[in-house]
Design a protein that fits this description.
By secondary structure, the chain is α/β, with parallel strands linked by helices. It has 12 helices and 15 strands. The protein folds into 2 domains: 201 residues, Alpha-Beta Complex (Quinone Oxidoreductase, Chain A, domain 1); 125 residues, Rossmann fold, CATH 3.40.50.720. Strands 3, 4, 5, 6, 7, 14 and 15 form a 7-stranded mixed β-sheet that branches. Strands 10-9-8-11-12-13 form a 6-stranded parallel β-sheet, sandwiched between helices. A two-stranded antiparallel sheet has the order 1-2. α7 links the parallel β9 and β10. The longest helix is centred in the middle third of the chain and has 13 residues. It is globular, with a radius of gyration of 20 Å.
Length: 344
């Protein structure tokens, strides 16, 4: 069986792996679609060592084999990849902090004991049964393959200081930013402002519920001031994932406001601490998700509160992954969410 891995800077390889078999507590999933994540793009750009288990971690498919100790899943069940539930036995769980379960967190990072040697850029994958969640029957495969990033944004907005009636700014209209935009709207934000340099993505943000879309810079600062009586945004969601964007998120927030860090910048950032101090900014940050949030997220996608189909802009086969990554890494791509169909 072939699986695609990012092995070096701007280098993707198709490697042969044995056909997977389930562990006693595992399942094998035939993958329908797998999304290309921003972390895949960063790895392709940088060539830094990359955990192969998360090289393609946004997948959905159908179970084709189950281990002898698995009773919650059967062959033919549609599933999405998620994080394992809290274990109840680690230090965090014993301290009453099940939402910080170390076992669950390691599974989200693809570093648990049963982590596969490749991710979802493959026709099949063997994983722990605890890592998969039954797909909501109302979801298409295209929607199901985007549930993992949608849940990342759901977790972030759920954990943030957003209040009913807030003015919320979303920096970056990539897949995570466009999901955060919709979750913030569903959570009761009064005005949604998206800051994004790409005109196509600004148009998509408008279609998905943004009240205002604007390019970064002075125009963004002026627009936010106009809608907040000069105070600044109540909360800013940083979804760009670049070091420069962290300080700009704080610059756009009001005194006493909040900033939620979602975008994963892989380099040190230069900030002005005095502005954070003077503004008394509250900062929340978010990585991954909780097991139970997948069902919450799927239910709200299924009932129409959040739309994922419009984010899907292209589907490629395994042989098109390198070209898709090159396009997304170039900074001028017209695509938003590219899905990989390993059976093409």
């Amino acid at each position: 069986m072939l699986a695609a891995l990012i092995v070096a800077k701007q280098q993707v390889e198709l490697r042969e792996f044995p056909d997977p078999v389930p562990a006693d507590t595992g399942v094998v999933v035939d993958i329908a679609l797998c999304g290309i994540c921003g972390t895949d793009v960063h790895a392709y750009q940088s060539g830094k060592p990359y955990n192969p288990a998360i090289c393609g971690h946004e997948w959905a498919g159908t179970i084709s084999a189950v281990g002898g100790d698995v009773h919650d899943f059967s062959e033919g069940d549609r599933v999405v990849v998620g994080a394992a539930p809290a274990c109840g036995a680690c230090e965090a769980c014993r301290a009453g902090q099940a939402d910080r379960c170390q076992v669950s967190f390691m599974s989200a990072l693809g570093r648990e004991a049963m982590a596969p040697r490749h991710g979802g850029f493959a026709s099949r994958i063997a994983v722990a049964a605890a890592r998969v969640v039954h797909t909501h029957p109302g979801l298409t495969d295209v929607e199901a393959a985007q549930i993992e990033p949608a849940t990342v944004a759901f977790h972030a907005v759920r954990a943030s200081r957003l209040r009913l009636g807030d003015v919320a700014v979303i920096q970056g209209a990539g897949p995570i930013g466009l999901c955060a935009l919709q979750w913030a709207g569903a959570a009761g934000a009064r005005r949604l402002i998206v800051v994004e340099p790409n005109a196509d993505r600004r148009a998509l943000a408008s279609m998905l519920g943004a009240h205002d879309v604007v390019e970064p810079g002075d125009a963004a600062s002026a627009l936010i001031a106009e809608h907040t009586h000069g105070l600044g945004a109540d909360i800013v969601y940083e979804c760009v994932g670049r070091p420069f964007a962290i300080q700009s998120a704080v610059d756009l927030a009001r005194r006493g406001g909040a900033m939620c860090l979602i975008g994963l910048a892989d380099e040190d950032a230069s900030i002005r601490p005095i502005s954070w101090l003077i503004k008394e900014i509250t900062v929340t940050s978010s990585l991954a998700y909780l097991h139970e949030e997948f069902e919450m997220c799927m239910a709200m996608v299924a009932d129409g509160r959040v739309a994922l189909e419009p984010l899907h802009s292209s589907t490629v086969g395994l042989d098109g992954l390198d070209g898709a990554l090159r396009d997304l890494a170039g900074g001028r791509s017209t695509h938003t969410k590219v899905l990989v169909d390993p059976n093409r």
